[in-house]
Amino acid sequence: MQQPMPPYPNHDPHHPPRRRLTRAEMRRRRRRRAIRRMAVLLGALALVAGGVSFAVTRLQADVPSASAASPAPVEGTGAVSSGVQNGTGAAGGTSTAAGTAESTDPAQPQNALGLTAAEAAAMLADPRMVLVNHQVPMPEDYTFDTKECGSATAINKTLQTEAADAFLEMQAAAAADGITVWMQSGYRSVEYQTTLYNNKTQQFLNQGYDEAAAREMAANIVNPPRYSEHNCGLAADLNCPEFTALEPGFEDTAAFDWLCQHAGGYGFILRYPKGEAAEAVTEITYEPWHWRYVGPENAARINASGLIFEQYIAELQSIAAAV
Q1: Rounded to the nearest 5°, which phi and psi values hold at 258?
Q2: In this structure, are residues 182 and 238 in contact, taking their beta carbons and an 8 Å threshold?
Q3: From CA 312, how far away is CA 318, in angstroms rounded?
């Protein structure tokens, strides 16, 4: 006898199938879901409102009242006016503590070097800062003592005593780093400079130039007496065993690299830097061997400024004049 087919073939008889919902049942379910969503939303809003209220209450509790925050008036001074809280007193002047502190701070110099007029004048008066070049001669009353510090082959072996001591200290420091630096030419007396200049002038006279032209052409090679830094005993022409010539090739030596890094600490600056802009100021072509003593503190300021010596002196003169 053929067995009757179950109403839902391939379905487990132990789990009767779900019947489809009627339209009315579907509408009721949608309404219940909407009500539940609304209840959840309202609950969330209530939690947020409660949190905000709690935070405001705590904030109000943490902030002291105006009467508690205001300092009690000091006896004899009267009550603190509301103008003080706004930064102004009864007369409209600034009266905050910060304003008082600012008013007592010394004014910062408003110039490129950050120096006061007095500081600039003091640097200009420093005999180590004397300016000597093609246009500015060494003062006639400029006097000093000298000390020997040149190498065995040096032409002029001395510098001003302070500059010589500084060079010898620098030379020893370089030697400790495995670097040899020699002082090849230092102080030249005015008499010696005169001889050099006259000899060069005579060379051009012998070539047929007149006196004026010969002296002008000689001055382009050898400074006239008192117009050379070597006359003031503060200029040192340096070299090393690897490069003894006083020529631009000295910049390729380890000695020059060491000087660029350390000479300022001993009071020496590179007097005639490289580049057209620098040469336009100094009117001297690049001389990596020519170092000028100005003292450690002055060297630090000059090197920090990035200015050439002539430019730095001009800035000092401008600042000192603005009294």
Answers
A1: -65, -40
A2: yes
A3: 10
Domain covering 117-136+147-184+234-321 in this structure, CATH number: 3.30.1380.10
Contact, 245 vs 253, CB < 8 A? no
Residue partners of 157: CB distance under 8 A and separation at least 6: 148, 149, 150, 151, 183, 186
Is residue 91's pLDDT more than 50? no
| DSSP string computed for 60-120 | HHHSPPHHHHSPPPPTTT-PPPHHHHTTB-TTS-B--HHHHHHHHSPPPP-STT---HHHH
Q: So where are the chain's domains? A: 117-136+147-184+234-321, 189-227
Give the C-alpha separation, 286 to 278, whole Å.
8
- The answer on pLDDT for 229 being more than 90 is yes
pLDDT at residue 110, as a whole number: 84
d(CA 67, CA 65): 5
Place of tokens 């490289």: 274
Task: Quote the CA–CA distance of 270 and 282 in Å, as a whole number.
Answer: 12
Contact 80, 70 (CB under 8 A): yes
Q: Name the band, by pLDDT with cuts 50, 70 and 90, for residue 99.
A: very low
Distance in angstroms (rounded) separating the CA atoms of residues 192 and 73: 80
Specify whether the CB–CB gap between 188 and 154 falls below 8 A: no
pLDDT at 136 over 80: yes
Q: How do residues 283-306 score in pLDDT, each as one tens digit?
A: 899 999 999 999 999 999 999 999
Q: DSSP of 274-323, one letter per residue?
A: SSHHHHHHH-S--EEEEEEE--HHHHHHHHHHT--HHHHHHHHHHHHH--
